[in-house]
Amino acid sequence: MTHVDPVKEHLIESDDSYRRLYQEHQEYKDRLSVIRQKSLTSQEDEIEMKRIKLHKLSLKDQMEAIRRRHLLEHASV
């Protein structure tokens, strides 16, 4: 069963910055999936996977900051 976060869904629909970060995160997730499906990965693939993972983590941190800010703004209403 997949849990859908309503705040995340709302931000994807209403916040351009969040949506861009989310889309970029999804692109990197897809790229990682492609690399992982290879039967043999090269050293370059391993380096790219590490770079992608670090970038995905940065994107996730940025998305979480936007999410927290949104929750704080709407909790005080």
Percent of residues in helices: over 70%
* Broad shape: elongated
Q: Report the strand count.
A: 0
Order of helices and strands: HHH
Rounded to the nearest angstrom, the distance between the terminal CA atoms is 32 Å
| Mean pLDDT value | 94
Q: How many separate helices?
A: 3
- Low-confidence runs: none
Beta-strand percentage range: under 5%
Which structural class fits the helix and strand makeup? mainly alpha
- Radius of gyration based on Cα positions: 16 Å
What is this entry, summarized?
With 77 residues, the chain is mainly α. The chain is built from 3 helices and no strands.
Topology:
Layout: H1 6-14, H2 16-36, H3 43-75
Helix pairs in contact: 1-2, 2-3
Written overview of the protein:
This protein is mostly helical and 77 residues long. It has three helices and no strands. It has helices at 6-14, 16-36, 43-75. The chain is elongated. It starts with 5 loop residues before the first helix and ends with a helix.
